[in-house]
Design brief:
Blueprint: H1 2-12, H2 16-20, H3 33-57, H4 63-83, E1 127-128, E2 138-145, H5 149-165, E3 169-177, H6 185-199, E4 204-208, E5 212-214, E6 228-229, E7 233-234, E8 250-254, H7 255-260, H8 274-284, E9 298-301, H9 316-321, H10 332-337, E10 342-349, E11 354-360, H11 362-367, H12 380-394
Parallel strand pairs: 2-3, 2-4, 3-11, 7-9
Antiparallel strand pairs: 1-3, 4-8, 5-9, 6-8, 10-11
The structure holds 2-acetamido-2-deoxy-6-O-sulfo-beta-D-glucopyranose.
Family: Belongs to the glycosyltransferase 7 family.
Keywords: Glycoprotein, Glycosyltransferase, Membrane, Signal-anchor, Transferase, Transmembrane, Transmembrane helix
Transmembrane segments: 32-55
Length: 395
């Protein structure tokens, strides 16, 4: 009888079996079965609830999946571009067709000979567009700069050579920070972006360090479906990426993506951290970084000693901790909110580039942030370091 009772309880999963077998079950474990049944039901409910909460808080595709899709897209982009590179220019036609997506002039490795070239076809301000076809991309190259004339001269020759071959409409903006304040790479890029938009309707912006020379001309200086990290393999690091999330050197953003992430953070004064910060901004907005194939994304770095004006930023790691917390406050948005953060001193059209000289006002930059250090320091020694730093900042 007891066996029959057990069977009934499992089949029905309800409290009825207890009523049904009240007369037959003899005060043994079986009398608890309805309680067990109810408990299991409650457990199932809790499980379902927690699953739905988990799914709700992270309903984005997993990183692995996104990376897989992006890798596929990159491969397709590079494979198809070559396939599509059949010349589309019809002889004798007045209509100018779109330039090839992967122009024939691209040779891969850049020969040092090209450095001897002069560029009479570049218009003042460093502007050029092909005349034999309609360019597919309108690109602003923005270079943060201070006191590296010998690098600038070499850089310009390399970059113009490549951009011609890639049949892009482009303009080069060198954004020079006037003396008097610690170098601020991120903010110079933001200023370069805002100033470039005054000179043309660029759909793509490439942010470029002046000491990096592209080695391959098929590393396309145009924008992809997501932000692109172009300087992946640098000779200085033996053509190996030093850490996986590196996003410094040369990066390309569509205009809309750059606005979407609120640009670079302005609060990094001195060397380091601003590129790691923008990578966090990109991730935080659900964008995935795309990279050209390893054989293409190769750069040489020009040698330089440590600069007096660009010492490592001692608080970069602390600032990185609040990267996401202040993403909406610190960036393009704060520059619109407080126009006193910088001043454009001069805009000059040079033979091969547009030179924008700016003055950065550190106090105004830091003023727009909620507080300097909202993160509670965990260790007393950090705390004293903080206090000293804040005291120094306020003077
Ligand atoms: C990291 C820096 C980045 C920098 C990268 C490579 O350590 O800003 O090295 O620098 N991050 C921090 O300091 C937090 S490189 O050797 O190429 O000048 O871009």
């Amino acid at each position: 009888m007891a066996e029959r009772c057990t069977y009934k309880m499992f089949v029905s999963w309800s409290i009825y079996p207890r009523i049904l077998c009240r007369s037959t079950c003899k005060g043994s474990l079986t009398s608890w079965y309805p309680v067990f049944g109810a408990l299991i039901l409650v457990l199932l409910l809790v499980l379902q609830l927690s699953m739905s909460v988990l799914l709700k808080t992270d309903d984005r595709p997993t990183d692995n999946y996104v990376q897989h899709v992006v890798r596929k897209l990159t491969e397709l982009e590079y494979a198809n571009l070559e396939a599509k590179s059949v010349s589309s220019n019809r002889a004798g036609s007045n209509i100018i067709d779109l330039c090839d997506a992967f122009p024939h002039a691209l040779e891969g490795k850049i020969e040092p000979l090209s450095l001897l070239k002069t560029f009479p076809e570049v218009r003042p301000g460093g502007f050029w567009r092909p005349t034999d076809c309609e360019p597919r991309h309108t690109v602003a190259i923005v270079v943060p700069y201070r006191d590296r004339l010998e690098h600038l001269e070499i850089f310009l020759k390399y970059i113009h050579t490549i951009l011609f071959r890639q049949k892009l409409e482009y303009r080069i903006f060198i954004v020079e920070q006037a003396t008097g304040c610690t170098f601020n790479r991120g903010m110079l890029m933001n200023i370069g972006f805002l100033e470039a938009m005054k000179h043309g309707n660029f759909s793509c912006i490439v942010f470029h360090d002046v000491d990096l020379l592209p080695e391959m001309d098929d590393n396309l200086y145009s924008c992809s479906v997501t932000p692109k990290h172009m300087s992946v393999n640098i000779d200085k690091f033996d053509y190996r990426i030093p850490y996986d999330s590196l996003f410094g050197g040369v990066v390309a953003f569509s205009k809309d993506h750059f606005k979407f992430i609120n640009g670079f953070a302005n609060r990094y004064f001195g060397w380091g951290g601003e590129d790691d910060d923008i990578k966090r901004r990109v991730d935080n907005r659900g964008l995935t970084v795309i990279r050209p194939p390893d054989s293409v994304a190769r750069y040489s770095m020009l040698k330089h000693g440590a600069e007096a004006g660009n010492k490592a930023n001692p608080i970069r790691y602390f600032e990185m901790k609040r990267a996401l917390e202040v993403q909406n406050v610190d960036g393009l948005s704060s520059m619109a909110f407080n126009p006193n953060m910088y001043k454009v001193l001069d805009t000059k059209l040079m033979d091969l580039y547009t030179k924008i000289t700016v003055e950065i006002h550190k106090i105004e930059v830091l003023k727009v942030l909620p507080t300097l250090f909202p993160i509670r320091p965990r260790h007393p020694w950090i705390s004293s370091k903080f206090r000293k730093f804040i005291a120094k900042e306020k003077t």
